[in-house]
């Protein structure tokens, strides 16, 4: 039994702002384990998406990893050339990005992109890839998958693109799934459906999931461990029950308290 499929140690990420490099992720360490979900919560701008992009090698020119390692099993991803990293990403790490538009090629239809991804992983005819892809599109609650298959990314809403991205990620049955706010743009019913799909991937296929969300309900439902991020650092990392019952850091306490506040407001309506 493998203990950790992805081990991040002392990660520091910087972005170039004008002439100097500013650290936005500082000394972050964690492990992703098969069949387990690590949730990351924290305020906007604290560096959650940056961690995801660093793992995926998608920081772009303005970003760099200035310290630390990201090991997929024994292999350090930070030392790999971009082409190798892309291959690994496609095969072993599934991705749901916070900004789904950046994931799609604007000049190819959804169907072309979905089929191409499926066919690069398994030998399938175009017709087989289409029938598998359509099945996954209806799994993520997309109405009229046939029509969506023929459409271009710009013809779909952000929430629809997000669901297509989830369908593609899940169809590949990755060992590791990086999901950055996977349910943010979705209505409650669809959100539940998506969470069930993620839980299925975790439980039936033993995937390790990194789940970034601001929704504590989603955390309570899916996460095993939770890391709390504040100004570029993990200020607290604990088992989900322990975190909800005995938050240690003042920021975590205020986060949980604000959630309770919202609940009381709803109840008093
Ligand atoms: N390409 C970039 N160039 C410069 N700075 C960036 C870039 N991307 C992100 N940053 C900065 O890095 C910091 C962390 O951003 P990040 O998107 O990781 O936050 P986040 O925790 O995901 O926030 P949110 O909850 O709003 O999604 C922010 O201060 C942001 O302005
Ligand atoms: Ni983010």
Please characterize this protein's 3D structure.
- Pfam families: ABC_tran.
- One of its GO terms (molecular function) is ATP hydrolysis activity.
- The chain has helices spanning 48-56, 82-92, 110-121, 126-139, 145-150, 158-171, 188-204, 216-222, 240-245, 250-268; strands at 6-17, 20-32, 37-42, 63-72, 75-76, 93-96, 176-180, 208-212, 225-230, 233-239.
- It is of the alpha/beta class and 269 residues long.
- It has one domain: Rossmann fold, CATH 3.40.50.300.
- A six-stranded mixed β-sheet has the order 6-7-8-3-9-10, with helices on both faces. Strands 2-1-4-5 form a four-stranded antiparallel β-sheet, covered by helices on one side.
- A hairpin with a 2-residue loop joins strand 4 (63-72) and strand 5.
- Helix 3 crosses helix 4 and helix 4 crosses helix 6 (158-171).
- The protein is globular, with a radius of gyration of 19 Å.
- The mean pLDDT is 91.
Strand runs, count: 10
CATH class bucket: Alpha Beta
Q: Largest sheet, order of strands side by side?
A: 6-7-8-3-9-10
Name of the CATH architecture: 3-Layer(aba) Sandwich
Domain ABC transporter: 6-256
Pfam families: ABC_tran
Subcellular location: Cell membrane
Catalytic activity: Ni(2+)(out) + ATP + H2O = Ni(2+)(in) + ADP + phosphate + H(+)
Give a short summary of the structure.
The chain is of the alpha/beta class and 269 residues long. It has helices spanning 48-56, 82-92, 110-121, 126-139, 145-150, 158-171, 188-204, 216-222, 240-245, 250-268, and strands at 6-17, 20-32, 37-42, 63-72, 75-76, 93-96, 176-180, 208-212, 225-230, 233-239.
């Amino acid at each position: 039994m493998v203990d950790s499929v992805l081990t991040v140690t002392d990660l520091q990420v910087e972005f170039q702002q004008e002439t100097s490099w500013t650290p936005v992720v500082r000394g972050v360490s964690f492990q992703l384990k098969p069949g387990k979900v690590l949730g990351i919560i924290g305020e906007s701008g604290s560096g959650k998406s940056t961690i995801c992009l660093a793992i995926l090698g998608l920081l772009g020119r303005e970003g760099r990893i200035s310290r630390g390692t990201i090991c997929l099993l024994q292999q350090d991803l930070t030392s790999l050339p971009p082409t190798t990293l892309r291959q690994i990403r496609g095969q072993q790490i599934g991705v749901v990005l916070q900004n789904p538009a950046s994931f799609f090629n604007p000049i190819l239809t959804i169907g072309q992109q979905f089929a191409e991804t499926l066919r690069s992983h398994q030998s399938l005819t175009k017709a087989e890839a289409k029938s598998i892809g359509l099945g996954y599109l209806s799994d993520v609650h997309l109405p009229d998958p046939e029509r969506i298959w023929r459409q271009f990314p710009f013809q779909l809403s952000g929430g629809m693109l997000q669901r297509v991205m989830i369908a593609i990620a899940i169809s590949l049955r990755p060992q590791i799934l990086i999901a950055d706010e996977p349910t943010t743009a979705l209505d409650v019913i669809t959100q539940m459906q998506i969470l069930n799909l993620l839980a299925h991937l975790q439980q039936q296929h033993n995937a390790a999931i990194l789940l970034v969300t601001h929704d504590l309900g989603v955390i309570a439902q899916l996460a095993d461990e939770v890391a709390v991020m504040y100004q570029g650092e993990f200020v607290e990392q604990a088992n989900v029950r322990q975190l909800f019952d005995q938050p240690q850091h003042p920021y975590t306490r205020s986060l949980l308290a604000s959630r309770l506040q919202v609940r009381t407001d709803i109840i008093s309506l």
